[in-house]
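Re: magnesium ion structure - here you go.
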Amino acid sequence: MITLALAGKPNCGKSTFFKAATMANVEIANYPFTTINPNFGVGYVRTKCPCHDLKLTCTHCVDGNRFVAVNLIDVAGLVPDAHKGKGLGNQFLDNLRQADAILHVIDASGGTDSEGNPVGVGNHDPEEDIRFLIYEMTMWVHGILGKHWTRISRQSQGKGTVIEQGIAETFVGLGITPDDVRDIQLQLKIDLIHGSIDDLIPLCAEIVKISKPMLVIGNKIDETPEALRTKLAAAKVAFVSAASELALRNAAGAHMIQYLPGDEEFKIANEGTLTAPQKAGLAKIAALMKENHGTGVQQAINRAVYELLDMIVVYPVEDETHFCNKQGDVLPDAFLMKKGSTPHDLAFQVHTDIGKGFLYALDARTKMRIKENHVLKNGDIIKVVSAAK
Ligand SMILES: Nc1nc2c(ncn2[C@@H]2O[C@H](COP(=O)(O)OP(=O)(O)O)[C@@H](O)[C@H]2O)c(=O)[nH]1
Ligand SMILES: [Mg+2]
C-alpha cells in the first residue's frame, strides 16, 4: 500500500489534516477503520467507480465514488537541525524513510514562525519553510553518506564507477541506483574522486528530490492574505483548510450534512436542527469551498497519488462476465498501480503465485485478450488467467 507522510514544522496543521483525512465515516469505505497508533492511519484516494458507467450494483463505493486506501503518517514536527538529532529528529527522518511521497504542510497564512510558534497572520514567510524542509532532508542524507564516505572513497581506488556503486548501495533503501548517481554527477559536474564530503551536498539534494516526491500543502487558507496566496500559487502549492475538512467530516458523521470527502459543496440535512453558531460555521465553510472548489484535503491526496506518484486505479476480477470475484462480489478490489504497469504487474500485485503462473489477461469490458506487456489505463477492469490456483 502507498504511504504518504505529513511533514512540516509544528503548528501548521499536520495533525488536523491527518485526523480529517483518516476519519472514515462508515459510509465512505467498508474497510474497518485502522489506526496502528495515533500517528499511523488510513486515508483515501477518491476515484470514479466503474460500476456507475457499467450500471452494476457494487457495494464498495458511495454513489459511484470509490475511496481507495493509502497509509498516512503524521510525522513528528520538524524543528531546525533535526538532521543533527534535535527535537524528534531521528524519529522524524525514520518516518520519512517509509514514505513514497511527502505532503509538506505549511501554514500558508504566515502565522507560524520557523520554530512553530504562533506569530499572527502574515508575519512569517512560508516559502522559507519549503526550503527549510528540503535542507533538513538533504543534510540528513548527507549525514548518512558522511558515515560511509571514508570507506566508499578508500574502496574505490580512484574508480568513479565504484564510487557510484557505493553511494547507490548506501541509499538502496531510498530506491537510488548507480545510474541515478551517475546522472546526477554528470548533470551537476561533481568530482566524486577528488571532491570533499561537503562537495556532495548538491548530490544529496538530488537524491532527496528523486526518492521523495513532495507536494507542498498550504494550510489555513481560511486566514491566508491574498498576497501570500498569489506567491504560493506560483510555487504550485496545494491550498487546503484542514480545519474546515475536519468540521465537515464531523458534521457528516453526525448526519448534520451530506458530504463526501472531495465534494465541492455539501448539503445541510435538516436546517431546523442546527444551532445558530453551527449555521454560521457551516456558512463560512461553504463560502471557502465555493472559492476553492472544496476544502482541498481530498484534492491534495489525489494530486499526490495521481500526479506526483503517477498512479492509476485498476480493478482485478475473476469473473469477467459479471465483473466480480468467485463469491459474486462486484468490483471487489481497486488497486493503485504505477502508470505504465502491465497485466503481468497486476497479476503480481494480486498474488506472487498468480504473477508467477501468469498466462494471459482479459479486458473485462471488451472480453478481449490483452498482451502481457499491454499498458493498463486508469479504470481498467482486468481478469488475469494464471496457472496458479
Ligand atoms: N485557521 C486554521 N487553523 C487551522 C487549520 N488547520 C489547523 N489549524 C490550527 O492550527 C493549530 C495547529 O494544528 P495541528 O494540527 O495541531 O498542527 P501540527 O502541529 O502541525 O500537527 C491548531 O490550533 C489548529 O486548530 C486551518 O485549516 N485553518
Ligand atoms: Mg501534530
